[in-house]
Design goal:
550 residues; alpha/beta; eight-stranded parallel sheet; six-stranded antiparallel sheet; 15 helices
């Protein structure tokens, strides 16, 4: 009888323990293989927006903007955390603004990505506390080539670094205490770090470090790397030296000055990130202000996580999960090509707020398997429900499980199960191949009968394509026309059927895949009598097409 009671007690305890283990929220993690952010081992597609710089500096303002954010169908909000407001007096921390953001996010069933405005924000040290700003002896500043101090904390000061680490660690400790449900899913460490108005810091500590030997960790990385960037090219040009000062190893140039400052900016940022992860291991990323064509180091924020100096950032950091681009210039595809790689998933944390973002979101998520997408100053929209991105996000949310499955299938098989396209008047067509199916995609305005065909400027349009089976595909987006060809040239590809429809959440809680609800059969005029698939411009549609061969 006693043994039976003991066994029952053990069983009850085991159930309680296991239930607690199952129900406990697990830390988010970036899965670089499938290019996904996982929350409790479930893929999470960030359909995000970044608040304007000052929007999170007032609880009253934060409280009033959430209806706008829900109207835009966000599931994730990128929120600044300001060092000067969080630690107004040294060692005294105030988390009221964070509490407000957490409360609102939970009430609206959203997630948060925090942006740590610590030592640097857009290169400058504008959000450091007053007690830091008013003590440049204790907290040294960068000096330009002429020896003039700049309002930028020097990365060569341990006092600067340790003050930042203490504040950032306090933030992560507080999150660990109050965010058991994991409302915060990722954190940006610093913001658009880089050096201005010169390529590097010229204070005494920096000048001394510039004469030191190039760190062994960087040399080892260069020796093992199979890639090529400006750093590796300069190193090889100098003879692939295994030791020596910066000017000897990379050459006496302004480019070497940028390599040098990049190393110290990256090491500083990584030290802050590592201190936080030791307390509470949230995924981390750093963002870059992209350089302009033909601009010299110092004419842009030099030394940030830019593609031409990836060798520096990748060898100098171990606590940073993702290097990300901020977009305020054209060439969206070109820059994403540079950032997306096997070891660096794409995340677009900041992009100029404009109507073309809807097309770019489909393209980034489809072609680059992006972790997420996030226009800047999302709270500035005057009519948020009418913004194209709002409609695109509502649409993409219904497809998120299918997107995730396609990413997993691509990773497992090394075959193409998901892709995307971005088109305008200059690039009005492109081809994508899925196995033996070649798809030609064109801007809808290439159709002579389209209402926009004669417009001087064509809007950007975009779509993502998922291969559901050998002969069935899902198309989602707006303003794209698709035709099909046998890549082996052995057969002709015909359209068996095109159905428009919607996906709705599964009623069975054990099944995470949405249910397809077909609407109209589009085998007539809408497909030009079986000649093409057409995602109508101005609408955000889902269409499923079945092909056949003859």
């Amino acid at each position: 009888m006693l043994i039976s009671k003991i066994r029952s007690a053990i069983a009850v305890f085991a159930c309680i323990f296991l239930s607690g283990f199952v129900l406990a929220e697990q830390m988010p993690v970036v899965d670089k293989t499938s290019k996904q952010l996982l929350i409790n081992n479930q893929a999470y597609l960030m359909l995000g927006g970044e608040l304007a710089n000052s929007s999170a500096a007032s609880s009253a303002y934060l409280n009033q903007i959430w209806p706008k954010l829900t109207a835009m169908n966000l599931n994730t909000v990128l929120v600044p955390i300001y060092w000067e407001l969080m630690e107004p007096k040294e060692g005294e921390f105030n988390f009221d603004l964070l509490d407000t953001a957490l409360k609102n996010a939970r009430a609206n069933r959203m997630k948060l990505v925090l942006l740590w405005f610590g030592s640097w924000k857009n290169s400058m040290s504008c959000y450091t506390p007053a007690w830091v700003k008013n003590d440049p002896v204790r907290f040294p500043l960068v000096e330009n080539r002429d020896g003039k101090k700049q309002a930028i904390l020097s990365p060569f000061s341990q006092n600067n670094l340790q003050a930042d680490i203490r504040a950032y660690s306090a933030l992560l400790s507080y999150l660990k205490k109050v965010d058991a449900e994991k409302t915060v899913i990722m954190i940006q460490v610093e913001n658009e770090v880089g050096m201005l108005p010169d390529a590097r810091d010229f204070n005494a500590a920096a000048n001394s470090a510039y004469e030191d030997a190039v760190p062994t960790a960087l040399i080892n990385y260069l020796q093992q790397s199979k890639n090529t960037d400006a750093v590796i090219s300069a190193w090889r040009k100098q003879g692939s030296l295994t030791s020596g000062p910066w000017k000897q190893v990379f050459g006496d140039s302004i480019a070497t000055e940028e390599f040098f400052i990049a190393w110290y900016l990256a090491r500083y940022t990584d030290a802050v990130a590592a201190a936080g992860k030791a307390i509470y291991p949230l995924p981390t990323f750093v963002n870059a202000a992209l350089n302009r064509p033909n601009a010299l180091p110092g004419q842009y924020p030099s030394g940030g996580p830019l593609p031409h100096i990836f060798s520096i950032w990748k060898s100098a950091t171990s606590a940073i999960d993702v290097l990300s681009p901020d977009f305020y210039n054209p060439n969206f595809t070109q820059w994403n090509d540079l950032y997306f790689s096997e070891d660096n998933p794409l995340f677009v944390p900041e992009i100029k707020m404009e109507d073309s973002n809807a097309a770019k979101a489909y393209f980034a998520i489809g072609h680059y398997k992006a972790l997420g997408f996030s226009p800047f100053s999302i709270d500035s929209a005057l009519k948020p429900a009418e913004v194209p991105l709002s409609k695109a996000y509502s649409h993409l949310a219904t497809l998120a499980p299918l997107i995730s499955q396609a990413k997993v299938n691509s990773a497992k098989t090394k075959a193409n199960f998901i892709d995307g396209i971005l088109l305008d008047k200059e690039r009005s067509s492109a081809k994508i191949v899925f196995g033996d199916i070649e798809i030609t995609l064109k801007h809808e305005f290439t159709l002579s009968w389209s209402s926009g065909a004669k417009q001087e400027v064509w809007p950007e349009v975009g779509a993502l394509i998922i291969r559901l089976s050998e002969k069935e595909f899902l198309f989602a987006g707006s303003g794209v026309v698709a035709t099909f060809k046998d890549a082996t040239q052995k057969n002709t590809i015909g359209i068996e059927s095109i159905w428009e429809g919607v996906y709705t959440p599964a009623k069975d809680s054990k099944n995470t895949m949405p249910v397809w609800k077909p609407g109209r059969l589009l085998n007539g005029d809408e497909s030009h009598q079986g000649r093409h698939l057409n995602l109508t411009y101005g609408e955000f549609q889902t269409q499923r097409i079945v092909l056949y061969k003859y």
